[in-house]
Amino acid sequence: MALMKGSQIPKDAVVLNEIEATGYIWDVISKWDSLKETWALRYGPMVLGAINSISGIMINRHYRWRFKLGSYGHFSSGIPLVVMPGLLTIAFHKHIIGTDMLLMKSDLCPICYEVKSTALQMSLGLLYPMILAPTSALMLANRYSTYRVPHLFEGPKVMLGFLKKHTKSFTGTLSYIALIQMAASAFITYFEMKNTLSLRHKMLEMEKEYEKEKQK
Question: Does the structure show a pLDDT above 80 at 15?
Answer without folding.
Answer: no
